[in-house]
Design a protein that fits this description.
Blueprint lengths: L3 H6 L12 E3 L5 E3 H7 L6 E2 L6 E2 L35 E3 L4 E3 L5 H5 L8 E2 L19 E3 L4 E3 L1 H6 L6 E3 H110 L3 H6 L23 H26 L2 H13 L4 H11 L14 E3 L5 E4 L19 E2 L8 E7 L6 E7 L17 E7 L2 E4 L5 E2 L8 E7 L4 E6 L4 E7 L8 H6 L7 E6 L9 E4 L6
Antiparallel strand pairs: 1-2, 3-4, 5-6, 5-7, 8-9, 8-10, 11-12, 12-23, 13-22, 14-19, 14-23, 15-16, 15-22, 16-17, 17-18, 19-20, 20-21
Length: 557
């Protein structure tokens, strides 16, 4: 295959036949091996029959044995060099379908018939570039069939197809690969960044876990200390009460013994007087009746100071309450897998049709607006279901419930347990914010820390960008035609979810929410304290903007 094109195009200049084992001369011409040997042995002064260049000595060396470095591992060897000492190729010819060392390449640089051949950097497997059907070099690429084609293929099988040169396709593919590489590098960088964030998060998580352990131990220590303190106090009160009762009994006993002694003496005297038979003496020595005989003392048998059943019932109640709250805290700790699944569903945009339908059917509540909480520029409709921003503050009375800086309004109804769901229409709004907040949220002054840590779980649209107001904020992908948002709050499990009602897909979910708004310690101790959660709303701060509307919930089930 290496000399196929040479044999077809250039006959031997000596025998005028097709080349048989072609050899090259120093002048760059080719001859058959036998013709080369017979022609150059005729005399000392010889010339090339092709180009008439004269030589003093016959060039009897085999082509490729002079000049150039030997081909090493990884090099492309010259196809014309014979034996084991092949030279390193410097170019490959796409027309000859062969690779040449520097010496054998000389004809392509000097012979006019060879100068039009296309030379490239040396490559292996040049045969792969030859069309097997037509034995021609494939110099073009068919865009439609995604294959290499030769000049004959263009005329037979690819007429009318989009054909480009290999160089053009090479540039196109190379540019495409560069773009793909940039994308891969970006993805790789994102993944590396994620790994770094994970390492940092793991470090922070370990630190948090240690802090939580310390705080939990402190909380339990406080609980245990409180219980032990109450137990010690109860024991002390019981002992003091018992001691007081015993002292009263002892005092009464002393008094009784004194009276008994006095009565005993009187009894002895009377017995002596009763023994006499002398009437005058009896009347003369009659003893006086002691005061002890007129003294009456009341004594009742002491009952138990405290019924044991009351202590047992109190202990059982404390245990039940503690178990209830600890079970809730443990569930929050075990919610990691559920949070990950929710995050994956959120990222992939998995629809929640059935789930949202169940939420709408089972947990929809009636929500209205509380005008007493509305910022002075907000106008609430008479039925308390719509609110819009009048831009300018109205002259209305202030009260502790009203927001005076942030353009918010709360719902009339507060919730402290169970699950709630309501929907808000955002049609025509260029900016908005919806969600839930704790009753204790700061309503005076500018508070830029309205995050879950401060009792605020909201979703909003700011300058055309949708954002979940976590810490730090989470920028969500653009949501086209977001006309209605559903807000679902589970106060027992501790999460707040937002849904695109029209597409029935979850937008974002806050998990592990602490609605009590306190530390781990307060979670343990505040058995009876329940914080109320209120819906929050903010319409567009633009004049003549459409109102934000609370709509009736309609289930698809």
């Amino acid at each position: 295959m290496a000399f196929a094109n040479i044999s077809e195009e250039l006959p031997c200049s000596v025998c005028f036949e097709v080349f048989t084992m072609p050899r090259s001369t120093p002048c760059g011409c080719y001859y058959c091996r036998a013709c080369n040997s017979s022609f150059w042995c005729t005399g000392d002064m010889s010339h090339c029959p092709e180009c008439n260049e004269s030589f003093l000595t016959a060039p009897k060396q085999a082509a490729g044995e002079d000049g150039g470095s030997p081909a090493g591992p990884g090099d492309v060897p010259c196809d014309l060099c014979e034996g084991n000492r092949k030279r390193k190729a410097v170019k490959s010819c796409l027309v000859c379908v062969a690779s040449y060392c520097d010496a054998h390449l000389k004809p392509h640089r000097t012979v006019q018939k060879l100068k039009w051949h296309q030379l490239i950097n040396p490559v292996d497997s040049l045969e792969e570039r030859v069309c097997r059907k037509h034995n021609k070099v494939m110099e073009s690429f068919c865009k439609e069939d995604e294959c290499y084609v030769c000049s004959v293929c263009l005329k037979e099988d690819h007429v009318g197809h989009h054909i480009v040169s290999l160089g053009e396709e090479f540039k196109f593919r190379k540019t495409s690969l560069q773009l793909v590489k940039i994308h891969i590098d970006n993805v790789m960088n994102d993944k590396c960044s994620m790994v770094f964030r994970m390492d940092y998060s793991m470090t922070q998580s370990r630190q948090k876990e240690q802090e939580t352990k310390v705080e939990a131990n402190q909380a339990f220590s406080v609980v245990v200390a409180a219980i032990l303190s109450k137990r010690a106090k109860l024991m002390e009160v019981l002992e003091e009460k018992q001691e007081a009762e015993e002292q009263k009994d002892k005092a009464l006993k002393r008094q009784l013994w004194l009276e008994i002694a006095e009565l005993r003496q009187t009894s002895v005297k009377m017995e002596e007087v009763l023994k006499t038979e002398d009437e005058f003496r009896l009347l003369q020595n009659l003893p006086s009746i002691p005061s002890a005989t007129n003294t009456k003392h009341c004594y009742t048998e002491r009952k138990s100071l405290l019924q044991v059943e009351k202590v047992l019932r109190a202990g059982v109640k404390i245990e039940e309450t503690l178990n209830k709250h600890m079970d809730k805290i443990i569930r929050e700790v075990l919610q990691g897998d559920e949070e990950e699944e929710a995050f994956e569903e959120q990222q992939t945009g998995t629809p929640f049709d059935d789930e949202l339908g169940k939420i709408q059917e089972q947990h929809a509540v009636k929500v209205t607006l509380d005008p007493n909480t509305a910022h002075p520029s907000l106008i609430v409709s008479e039925d308390a279901t719509q609110v819009w921003d009048g831009v300018f503050n109205r002259n209305i009375s202030d009260n502790p419930k009203r927001f005076d800086s942030l353009h918010f309004v709360l719902g009339n109804e507060g919730f402290s347990s169970g699950k709630i769901y309501y929907e808000v229409s955002l049609e025509g709004l260029t900016g908005w914010e919806v969600g839930v907040v704790r009753e204790s949220i700061n309503r005076k002054g500018v508070n830029w820390s309205l995050t879950p840590e401060n009792g605020c779980w909201t979703l909003g649209l700011y300058s055309g960008r949708c954002q979940a107001n976590s810490n730090p904020p989470v920028h969500l992908p653009s949501i086209k035609k977001l006309q209605k948002v559903g807000v679902f709050v589970d106060l027992e499990e501790g999460f707040v979810s937002f849904y695109n009602v029209d597409t029935r897909a979850q937008i974002y979910s806050f998990t592990g929410c602490v609605f009590e708004g306190a530390s781990f310690l307060r979670k343990i101790l505040a058995f009876w304290a329940r914080t109320r959660i209120y819906p929050l709303f903010r319409p567009s701060a633009e004049e003549e903007s459409a109102p934000l509307r609370i709509t009736d919930v309609r289930s698809v089930l």
